[in-house]
Design brief:
Layout lengths: L2 E6 L7 E6 L5 E6 L4 E5 L5 E5 L6 E6 L5 E6 L4 E5 L4 E6 L9 E3 L5 E5 L4 E6 L5 E6 L5 E6 L5 E6 L4 E5 L5 E5 L6 E6 L5 E6 L3 E6 L4 E7 L5 E6 L5 E6 L4 E5 L4 E6 L6 E6 L5 E6 L4 E5 L4
């Protein structure tokens, strides 16, 4: 039911902070403190090529729905847009110091959203590299962001535990969600856009009803910070990665952990599913990329 397919040790020369799986082409992208973005063949686990250009550690990577364009953010305060097919840099966006942390593509692939130290969510147009608008939370450092698959909502999580949900068409703040007492490291909407799952340094995983803005459940299972959450495309399960070195699979209906992977030897920064939910990838400070088979999920 659950198995480790590829354990790629020393995938980077330093800790790996982010992983993304293309919806087309079956490739995996990883971003590391070694300044590099690497592209991997998901089936074989072999490295395909490297994208070079950042100067101070890659914080986050994401891939457009088409699978053709990637975006990365770095401690060097730059956003880079890459052509995945030609392995080339399309453009560099300079948003200013600490103005781009996490990054995510909009469902139509035309924009990317980044979180800032000032508590804002900045929206950038991919084609031009121009800032389209700013959504203000009037809060703390935005450490996580997520678009809903239907494109109507954008959620942000901050270092003080606050979560905000914006209406994308109008840019207005719809909800401020309670529930976390420490930094919200990761957010993900369910495939039908009705639920939002959050992972926090308070070791909790919260499940929210997006429309009614209430917390449906607060799950405990990790013994340390929850650094990443990812929803299976099947909607039945979601995965979490933690600084306790573990990757967990949770069943949504029972709200129970159904499997734990213990392959990593250091904190797990990021997890992601492939497009049909049969595979899961995780990356860690132990410099490894692991690909799992989760075919029953």
């Amino acid at each position: 039911m659950y198995q480790t397919l590829h354990h790629i040790k020393d995938a980077h020369e330093d800790g790996i902070w982010s992983v993304a799986w293309t919806k087309r082409g079956n490739r995996i992208l990883t971003g590391s403190v070694d300044d590099l973005v690497k592209v991997w063949h998901a089936e074989s686990g072999n490295s395909s090529y490297t994208l070079e250009g950042h100067q101070l550690g890659v914080v986050a990577v994401d891939v457009s729905p088409s699978g053709m364009i990637a975006a990365s953010t770095s401690l060097d305060s730059q956003i880079k847009i890459w052509d995945v097919s030609s392995h080339s840099l399309i453009r560099t966006i300079d948003p200013g110091p600490v103005e781009a942390w996490s990054v995510t593509f909009s469902p139509d692939g035309r924009q990317i959203a980044t979180g800032s130290y000032a508590g804002n969510v900045n929206i950038w147009t991919v084609e031009t590299g121009e800032k389209d608008r700013v959504m203000e939370t009037k809060g703390k450092f935005v450490m996580s962001i997520a678009y809903s698959p239907n494109g109507l909502y954008l959620a942000s999580g901050a270092e003080n535990g606050s979560i905000h949900i914006f209406d994308v068409p109008t840019g207005k703040l719809l909800h401020s969600l309670p529930g976390h007492s420490m930094a919200v490291r990761s957010l993900v909407f369910s495939p039908d856009s009705s639920l939002l799952v959050s992972g926090s340094d308070d070791k909790r995983i919260n499940i929210y009803d997006v429309h009614h803005a209430n917390c449906l459940a607060s799950l405990m299972g990790h013994s340390s910070w929850v650094l990443s959450v990812a929803f299976s495309p099947t909607t039945t399960h979601f995965a979490t990665g933690s600084s306790d070195k573990r990757v967990k699979i949770w069943e949504l209906s029972s709200r129970q952990c159904v499997h734990t992977f213990d392959d990593h030897t250091d904190q797990v920064w990021s997890v992601t599913y492939n497009d049909d939910g049969s595979r899961l990838a995780s990356v860690s400070d132990d410099r490894s990329l692991i690909i799992y088979g989760v075919s029953m999920v």
